[in-house]
Amino acid sequence: MANVVLDDVVKSFGDVVAVDHVNLEIEDGEFMALVGPSGCGKTTTLNMVAGLIELTSGTIAIGGKVVNDLDPKDRDIAMVFQNYALYPNKSVAENLAFPLQMRKVSKSDIEVRVKRAAEILSISHLLNRKPRQLSGGQQQRVALGRALVRDPKAFLMDEPLSNLDAMLRVQMRSELKRLHQQFSTTVIYVTHDQMEAMTMADRIAVMSGGVLQQVGTPDDIYNRPANTFVAGFVGSPAMNFLSGNVTTSNDETAIQGSGWTLPLSQRNISRVGGSTTSEVIVGARHTNLTVLPEDATSGLPARVYTIEPTGDLTFVHVWLGEQLVVASTPGTYHGVADQPIRLEFDQDRLYLFDAETKRAL
Ligand SMILES: Nc1ncnc2c1ncn2[C@@H]1O[C@H](COP(=O)(O)OP(=O)(O)OP(=O)(O)O)[C@@H](O)[C@H]1O
Ligand SMILES: [Mg+2]
Questions:
Q1: CB of 11 closer than 6 angstroms to any ligand 1 atom
Q2: Is the predicted pLDDT of residue 211 greater than 90, yes or no?
Q3: Would 2 disulfide with which of 63, 73, 223, 247, CB 3.0-4.6 Å?
Q4: How much is the pLDDT for 80?
Q5: pLDDT for 140-154, tens place per residue?
């Protein structure tokens, strides 16, 4: 086990800066998820830690030792990729044993480690089968087992669950999490799935365009996003963003957008005071918007656009002035399109961003 430290790491491919001055410390035993949209530099970052590609500049240290010039095989890390290639002609047991044989581990030691990994992953009954006789999820577990038997300093995983169907992915998600709790080995886990990152990781590093946007616990990332990118990336449906100008009239401070005016609570008034311009972006998650009847005494006038029942929750898309926003209601909600309603913002759960810098206020 070891910590992994990226210090001012840059990787350019010609004109493309894939990883742009990234500083990140993954603590010993920590499960760090690296998330971001396609092309943001996640795989490139992971491959530099693995030693599969060279850095343009910066340093990477594993367990306190700079590894820039070390070959992948000398870094003592295990990788699990999206396309786990198992050896088709070897049995599950042989697949698990192979990396240990390559490392000249003794036969008796190999037996013990393979047995243990198989037990942990619930594949003991499959040890004599060939990969083609396994389901996708079972193959995935063998691939994990092959990494696990090695007892490496760190696991690097690049979208290891993305080939699985939705149900299996959710199941493997909790198994991986349990595995990590049992082993507390350092894990760097790349995914574009914010839900996977939120549910599994100790901390999340959010990347966009090669730049690290924020590093924090799932709670930090969800409740205290550093900027509009992070705020919009986590949560589903995505956070609503509304831009408007801070105005004060008759002692009331409000944000005014096209066709709506949102009065602010005292605390939110002091927050918008920190903005560099009078233009701010209001962020509201669907759970922090309440749909009220048209004759309610609070909330802003709005109009129903569409209604999406999903079972427990019903998503109500509404026009607020000239902007569409989504609110969630209990599944018992019954409304109709074009119906006038009022929309209440939870002032204690309002996200506010500087319109110019896009940073949280
Ligand atoms: N060998 C390469 N040559 C040129 N450009 C590359 C190379 N590898 C990656 N890139 C570019 O670097 C950027 C980051 O790529 P990377 O594979 O790290 O993204 P990613 O975050 O893993 O995306 P995805 O979620 O799609 O896997 C992209 O713009 C990509 O086109
Ligand atoms: Mg990738």
A1: no
A2: yes
A3: 63
A4: 85
A5: 889 888 888 888 889
Q: Which residue has the higher pLDDT, 305 or 153?
A: 305
Residue 304 is encoded by which pair of tokens? Answer: 């129903």
The ranges assigned to domains in the chain are: 4-231, 240-354
Mean pLDDT on 119-144: 89
- Name 360's bridge partners: 353
Is the CB–ligand 1 distance for residue 56 below 6 Å?
Answer: no
Whose tokens are 């999340």? That residue is 204
Minimal-distance CA residue to ligand 1 atom 3: 13
State if residue 43 touches ligand 1 by the CB under 6 angstroms criterion. Answer: yes
> Would you state the pLDDT for residue 250?
80
Give the C-alpha separation, 156 to 271, whole Å.
40
At 249-271, the pLDDT tens digits run: 888 899 999 999 999 999 999 99
What are the backbone angles phi and psi of residue 13, rounded to the nearest 5°? -115, 100
Q: How far is the CA of 81 from the centre of ligand 2 (A)?
A: 10
DSSP 3-state of 58: strand
What single letter denotes the amino acid at residue 21?
Answer: H
DSSP for residue 347: G
Task: Check if 39 has its Cβ closer than 6 Å to any atom of ligand 1.
Answer: yes
**Residue 40 alpha carbon, nearest atom of ligand 1:** 21
Note the pLDDT of residue 313. 95
- Closest ligand 1 atom to residue 192 Cα is 25
Question: What does CATH list as the number for 4-231?
Answer: 3.40.50.300
How far does residue 38's CA lie from ligand 2's centre (Å)?
7
Give the integer Cα–Cα distance in Å for 240 and 331. Answer: 20
Distance 284 CA to ligand 1 centre (A): 32
The CATH code of the domain at 240-354 is 2.40.50.140
pLDDT, position 37: 94
